[in-house]
Amino acid sequence: MTAPEAPAQAAMPQPDLATASPPARADGTGWNLVQRILRRQDRGRTPVEVGRLRLALVFGAFTVVFVAIAGQLVNVSLLGGGVEARQLVARKPAPPERGEILDRNGQLLAATLPTTSVYADPRKVLDAEDTARRLHQVFPDVPLATLVERLASERTFVYVRRNISPQQMQRVNSLGLPGVYFQEETRRLYPQGPVVSQVLGFSDVDNQGLGGVERQFNDRLRTGETIQLSLDLRVQHMLRQELITAMTRFSAIGAAGVVLDARTAEVLAMVSLPDFDPNDPGRAPDDARFNRATLGVYEMGSTFKIFNTAMGLEAGVTSMSGGYDASAPIRIGRFEINDDHAKNRWMSTPEIFKYSSNIGSAKMALDVGAAGQRQFLERLRLLQPSRLEVPEVGRPQFPKAWRPINVMTIAFGHGISVSPMMLAAATAPVVNGGFWREPTLLRRELEEVPAGEPIMSPRTSADMRRLMRLVVVEGTGRNANVDGYVTGGKTGTAEKIGAGGYQKNKRISSFVGAFPLHDPKYVVFVMLDEPKGIRETFGFATAGWVAAPTFARVVSRIGPLLGVPPVDETTPEIRQIMAVTETPRPGGQRVSQR
Amino acid sequence: MTTTFSRTDTSVVGRWWWTIDRLSLAALCTIMFIGCLLILAASPAVATRIGLDYFYFVKRQLVLVPPALAIMLAVSMLDMVSVRRLALVGFVGTLVLLLLVPVMGAEIKGARRWINIAGFSLQPSEFLKPTFAVVAAWLFARARARGTVLAFVPPIALWGLCAALLLAQPDLGQTVVLSAIWFTQFFLAGLPVILMVIGAVAGAAGLVMAYHTFPHVTSRINRFLDPDSGDTFQVDRSLEAFYKGGLFGQGPGEGRVKQVIPDVHADFIYAVAGEEFGMIACLIILALFSLVVLRGFAKAMRETNLFVMLAVAGLFTQFGLQAAIHMASTLHLMPTKGMTLPFISYGGSSLLAIGIGCGFALALTRKRYGRVDP
Question: Exactly one of A197, A203, A272, A302 is catalytic; which is it?
Fold first, then answer.
């Protein structure tokens, strides 16, 4: 190392090199070959000069590395390079929050709330015992032993506690425990509790609707869409309250009710009792989750005379002034058809309706015939399941072979079972001028209301309104009268079929009506399942005593709310619209004359 | 400061002041100061998490900063020959300790790297790197001067021995750094290009072998190449930290990354800097390291003594490579490799050893006025 700046190696005075060189030239192999390569690539430069040149390369390489680091620093810090992309890889994009469900006025019926859960990765927990003890202080409701067991397990994910409060989150955070994490979760909340339960259904922890609207519109709700229902929460509330009152009063095992807009076919309220709290559906007994309004099908009894009478009038087999001889029961085979309020005489059409004559109704149906009756009921959608937007819809039951006995019993609502919703929906065209519209649970804007399918003449509809009013004014449904709201409708009491035929004391008592009948806006149906008579009703549990008053109370509450102006029924205008002109049949007898 | 020493002051300190690279010295002192700040920011979270005193790591680190600075300054006052001698003595001593590690070392996290001497736990491999750089430079320079192939045997054997000892611990990271120092020096000492290609192939083969031999290397490389294949928890949190820090950082003490990455005060301290002090601070740190390293190489290029050139290049390769690996790891430019950021990461052995290394480098880059080197 005497002279680093020594001239090229040819002239180098190095003894080693000098002695090593000659044998290299001599054999030209082995070490000396490498040595020659070494010397040749120096190209006459000194070792220091070679080092300097190569150091420039090292300098350049480090410069590139440092610039790359600076570039990545800017990329990550400012542009988030790698951060989002890696998070996307790490976990799936968060699905949109389940959509809200609102009533027609925007009231919240179902909402999704964000909550937080604590979980742990036991592999990353340093000291399971210690961690469990600290967590137990924050969550005394989780047993210490459970926490230790979970945190010491071999799994990679264990819940510590779900749905914690912000305060608890803060406390866990300040513990700073490694391996303990928070998870954002959502929870479905039903602020109205059981009030809308049968309509809404509920959804599970995995954001899947398991019944009612939640299930019907599951796909739309999952994408975050808000569903606005036709329900009016206030009407729903009132209907439910009145049904609970009646159910308690008459010790019924269940009740159902529907309020339908007669013009748009929107369902304003739909109640089935008993109901449940969708916030905690697991605790609900099966019966409480059974929707009597849509899934249950019942023999409705005399309310069917609405359709039978409309059919008779529409078919022209009778008229408002026509009538039938109801002086004797009809015997057909082993059956005998009687009247509950037997008059044992010829009865006019309004009388048959007003006094709910089975005999008259049966004869009217026979005149129309099996085919005509069937066709008419089909047009009223009484022979097919409802298309309402809930999965729980019951299939109507009716005879396959439509024999004369069936024609006659169906005339007064026996031998055919339909759901309350179907009955209410079929009543709408009878009062609204004859137009069928599919009932819906979704809010319809005015321009969305379908034109409707005409299934009877406006004249028949007008006659039916008069007849329904008649029932309330002087027939079986006088308890359904509400001053100022021009109510009308029809009672129906049917014995439930049990083992061994009809059961005298197990009834379905219902009332279907509409108001105000001079300008029908709403159809209301109420039904009590197995009501028991009480002293105030003189032991009666028939529709006129239990269902009709309930209907009246519902109407008297929702009428003002829905903005139906009360009118004076005694004014000549209303009286004329509602008047039943019982002109005597040519050659026939007036009822009063007998 | 410039008035402290007269130009005519011929005392050791006076001469040192006028010959030392004062800019690099200032940069190194700044890095050490930043290190103190960052250890304050990062380590209390780790200390409390593993049940130690809040300032446990801070105390242990700060108590070693003055000695490290003193050692660096003292060593930087040595002349070239003394540097070589000290390095040789230190190297032999370290080698002995390294041989003792498998026998009496303490096993921590699956590797034996530490040795207890008089109450201090020492990591000999840290001290091996700077002393090795000087000793290898000396052997290469000698071999180059002789010009015979045989003369290159000692430096090659030296590397083989050291690499074997480090791999036995096992400590792949230190082996890589040591090999990089050695390879750079070999390259500068005129390693034929053909051999370099062979060497590069051998190095790649070595890494492939390591990939297949050591399970933790396999998983780390797998995770780098395919983030889905395993847990990329640490580097994900690290990247998030930089992103959250943005331009100016969340503010001192406001970071979260230090609470979730286990050895954040050592292996991911750059991410703490990014989260709490922001990108600009990180760029300043990077600039300081670049300044020291590139300026060191530039000085070495102007050097006329091959030994000095090789030693300086080796020392700055070590310094620069450790910094680059640390920063690149935290920024996911390469597989996660636990590497200390010189003077900044926690670690007493690392701090003192880097002090010695920088002392060597400063000593060797001092101006030597026309003196003929022995």
Answer: A302
Helix (H) or strand (E) holding A594: none
| Residue-by-residue DSSP string for A242-309 | HHHHHHHHTT-SEEEEEEEETTT-BEEEEEEES---TTSGGGS-HHHHS-TTTT--EE-GGGGHHHHH
CATH topology of domain A115-187: Penicillin-binding protein 2a (Domain 2) (3.90.1310)
Q: Among A65, A77, A90, select the one facing B246 at the smallest CB separation.
A: A77
Domain limits of chain A? 115-187, 236-593
Q: B337-349, pLDDT tens digit by residue?
A: 778 899 988 888 8
A236-593 CATH fold? Beta-lactamase (3.40.710)
Interchain CB distance below 8 Å, B49 and A39 = no
Taking residues A291-305, what's their average pLDDT? 93
Chain B touched by A6 (CB under 8 Å) = no
Under a CB-based contact definition with an 8 Å cutoff, are residues B306 and A48 in contact? Answer: yes
Express each pLDDT in B276-316 by its tens digit. Answer: 898 999 999 999 999 999 999 998 888 888 899 999 999 99
3-state secondary structure of B99: helix
Q: Is residue B95 predicted with pLDDT exceeding 60?
A: yes
- pLDDT score recorded for residue A20: 38
In tens, the pLDDT along B191-216 reads 778 878 887 888 888 888 888 877 77
Q: Residue B265's pLDDT is what?
A: 81
Section B249-267 average pLDDT: 79
Q: Do A66 and B147 touch (CB under 8 A)?
A: no
pLDDT given for residue A24 in this prediction = 39
The pTM (predicted TM-score) of the whole model is 0.55
* Intrachain domains A115-187 and A236-593 with the same fold: no
Q: Which of B294, B300, B332 sits opposite A63 (nearest CB)?
A: B294
Helical H runs in A118-253? Answer: 128-138, 144-151, 166-175, 197-200, 212-216, 218-222, 233-249
- C-alpha dist (Å) from residue A224 to A104, A390, A496, B60: 18, 19, 44, 55
The confidence band for A585, taking pLDDT boundaries of 50, 70 and 90, is very low
Angle at A527 between CA A524 and CA A529, to 5 degrees: 170
pLDDT of residue A546: 93
Tokens of A273: 């009792």
Catalytic, A302? Answer yes
Interface residue A20 vs chain B (CB under 8 A): yes
Range A328-332 contact pairs with CB under 8 angstroms and sequence separation of 24 or more: A328/A359, A329/A359, A330/A359, A330/A362, A330/A363, A330/A408, A332/A404, A332/A405, A332/A408
Question: Is the N-terminal amide bond of A516 cis, ω within 30° of 0?
Answer: yes
Q: Which residues pair with A528 in a beta bridge?
A: A255, A509
| Torsion over CA: A242, A245, A248, A251 (sign) | negative
> 3-state SS of B279-299?
HHHHHHHHHHHHHHHHHHHHH
Q: What does the domain layout of chain B look like in residue ranges?
A: 21-364
